[in-house]
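Title: [Solved] Penicillin-binding protein 2x 3D structure

Original question kept below for reference.
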Amino acid sequence: MFIFFGGLFLLLYWRFASIQATGMVKGHELEEEALSRYETGYVLSADRGKILDRNANVIAEDTLSYRLVAVIKESATENKKNPRHVVDKAETAKLLAQYIPMDEEKIYERLNPSKDLYQVEFGLAGRGISHEVKKKIEELKLPGILLYSDKKRYYPNGAFASHLIGFALRETDDDGNSSVVGKMGLEYIYDKQLTGTDGKLTYQRDARNYLLPSSDKVIQEAQDGNDIYLTIDKTIQNFLEEAMTRVNDEYKPQSMVAVVANPKTGEILAMSQRPTFNPDTRTGLDGNWLNDVVENTIEPGSTFKTFTVAAAIDSNNWHPNATYQSGQYKVYNDTIRDHNRYGWGRISYLEGIQRSSNTAMTNLLDIMGWETYESYLKEFGFGQKTGIDLPNEASGIINSRYPLEKYTTTFGQGSTVTPIQLIQGVTAVANDGKMMQPYVIDKIVNPNTGEVLVDSEPTIKGEPISAETAQKTREVLASTIYGEAGNAKRFEIEGYKVAGKTGTAQMPKANGIGYDWGKNEFLYSFLGMAPAEDPQLAVFISVAKPKLGATEIGSDPVSQVFNSVVLNSLKYMNINPSDVAEVETTKIDDYVGEQTDTVMTQLEAEGLIPVIIGQDGEITEQFPAADSSLTSGSIVFLKTDGEITLPSFNNWSLRNLLVYKSLSKLPIEIVGEGYVESQSVSQGTPITDDSPIVVKLKTPEEMHLTPPAEDMELEDEEFSEEPPQD
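Solution (posted by the thread starter after getting help):
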């Protein structure tokens, strides 16, 4: 016995000595095991980076919320008088359904899982619970119902540039770790930059979880995600959202797209689309997760005439007062028609752009030549990505395989572009020839150190046209609104001069074969800038398939968005009407005794419209008189001898009509006031007798309520009743 117990003692002594020397038992480090048992702590959660506007107004940020958990395992309860699990599942489901967005039946199903679980959660419905709702749930005193503090991604502005900003959700991985993850838009694109790194606080405790007196707390600070500052201006974005919502509710279009930019820098100040959604709840988020401004292409319609005219001016092929035969244009076996299928007779190119004549553009292409025109389109960036700091940008296609496609491209049909390409291109017109690359990220800042990681600067993408061309193009575009024959008068804004071009484009059928046709089936748009003399805003608005009233036209919903946003934005930017430069004027000479061909060339070069009363030859009388100051697009009447051929009076003011009647001495009978709606004798008719010529006028209000018969369907449409076929 002595030997047995002596050997056992020596073995035990050897074991103690071995453990003390090595610190190991069966391959386990005893010190680590002790630390893991007595060392504890908790995670210091990092905030996801904020998304802010250009003025540091919050667009997206993390905020404190609560997560709902239900303990369902009965073993969690040690004292039946104080249950710690859900006892009455039916009653619990009924009460919780009043406070979380989940049906009572589904809550009950969650509380009765097929697997043996200790606790269950309620997905998105059980996350992001506010403090107010938390208190109401706690007041129910439901056994087994727990609420843990959590973080929620919060979007304080609701539906606000939602397809640009996107949204982020909290997700839990297989190991039970949860984090907020970007799922769409900037939240998804910049998820890595926005995601922070969690920290940790550790300390040693005793068996009762109390901090040991000799223990030191070790803190590893959390590193919050980077903050992203956008070029978006919250105020201008709100102007846009409010106007789009108002128009969307009234006209219920298939879709809408809008973008507002600073043409001097390329900064995007506002961007939105309809349908839209609330990123907090995802309410309204349908199948379209694309940012249509960047990722979808459209046929731009007559807004594309902006670039056709600019190309013609810059290549010295624009002669505003030269004339062409409007109405239709033959391309082999195909016919391109103006929206007034019979045209307006022989009119000037300036009047053609004011009336949005397709055939004016086709004739300009003949003058320029396709190679010249195509080179300008490439310089304007069409058919290629702008390089905006957003992914999945579409490039569009300039179709030119067949002759017809080349001609239809001049007025924006057949070829495709993105709205952001139109904005980039028009910055060259607004910014004296310098085309600015669009961008939405202003800077990215590390909030932990204050270091600026990304600091964006304006980038000149190219100079497709000269400064002189840009100025002339703006004047031409302004004449579509303020000129006698301008058909974009709805875009006139009180106190500010606007330049721009309306557009109406056919939309492909759902099956991709052919185009839809009809008043409520087009894509209506406007590409414009203001103030026209020195543009501070460049804007594109499109409204697809609005439900128009019997007396309404496509420009109605578009202008309601444009006018509201631009007027409010210019005032917000402190660009007061008094700050706008005066409209340039031209002082005319005394032309009496000179020849019409010489005078007409001079007037056309100065942007004025000569109207001859009689035959070519010596001028005997003029109006206005010499030394009068006129704005671009004004009419100058030149009286000569010989037979008078009647011009088109369409959209002439009563004043101009009275001047013509006085100089011509023709028997013109004037009915009504305002602007000419119709005339009884067609344009181009030689007047050989004293038969009365009846001219009917209507005020702008009357024209709005009862549009002329030929314009009932479309205002600036590029199409006839029968669309051209490829």
